[in-house]
Amino acid sequence: MPKVIILTGDAAESLEVMYPYQRLQEEGYQVDIAAPAVKKLQFVVHDFVDGFDTYTEKPGYTWPANVAFADVNPADYVAMVIPGGRAPEYIRNDPDFQRIVRHFFEADLPVAHLCHAAQGLAAAGVLEGRRTAAYPALEPDVRAAGAEYVDAAAVVDGQMVSARAWPDHPSWFGEFMTILRAKAPAST
């Protein structure tokens, strides 16, 4: 059974972790959730409230990370997913997170990321020359990393599929599954 890894941490957006996690399992992939340490992670819910200039944050689901970044052999996985939320803000500084990310880009393997995950990709130095979506407030960060920011629900750049946030799930993950099925089909 092909394996997919989700790289995340505390304060990741609940929907952005759980939707790909469950969708990949439904498709027949084994899914590992990697974080800085093996522990129960606390996710958050980002929502949009009339009158607020940005999203609000509330406590979300808890879910275990079953592998620590330091213990990940990225060659064991056929694809990588990086959810958004606030987790990318701090996991991007982990040298093992950066090592894992660089492996997937160097090996030209399927990568799905959305929302604030672009912060992690920028820190790993893999965005230069690419086209990517991200949470709209990150447009300056994407440009500073040498990438073209695209305001769209699903941006495909080679094996990488990106999106702005969880409202884009159907378009974003549909495109990712098309790439993943072609590159590493699961036997269900």
TrEMBL record:
Xref: Pfam families: DJ-1_PfpI (PF01965)
Record keywords, A-Z: Hydrolase, Protease
Coiled coil: none
GO biological process: proteolysis
Molecular function as annotated in GO: peptidase activity
Record-linked InterPro entries: C56_PfpI-like (IPR006286), Class_I_gatase-like (IPR029062), DJ-1/PfpI (IPR002818)
Recorded family membership: Belongs to the peptidase C56 family.
NCBIfam families: PfpI
Name this polypeptide is given: Protease
Organism: Actinocatenispora rupis
